[in-house]
TrEMBL record:
Residues 16-83 form the UPF0033 domain. This is Putative redox protein, regulator of disulfide bond formation. It comes from Schinkia azotoformans MEV2011. Pfam families: TusA. Its EC number is 2.8.1.-. One of its GO terms (molecular function) is transferase activity. The keyword Membrane does not apply. Keywords: Transferase. It comes from the Bacteria. SUPFAM superfamilies: SirA-like. InterPro entries: TusA-like (IPR001455), TusA-like_sf (IPR036868). The keyword Transferase applies.
Amino acid sequence: MINISYINYQYDELYDAGPDSCGELIVKLFLRMKKMDQGQVIKVISYDLGAVEDVPAWCRMQGHELLVMNEEGLLITNFYIKKC
């Protein structure tokens, strides 16, 4: 996984988590990825500070590839996750 702010991956799905807490984010991410095909990429936009630790851990546990985790300022984090 790399953390570089200028990379903008192509993605198949977009999930803007809005005000969702990290627990809600993980559940909704799981449900969205369940509908995706293997090899597709989802971009997740999170405003929850806990997501910085929880999303990478969830990806490892689920066997998905976290391509990029990009923090924009203090509150916004973008994740690009490839379904494996």
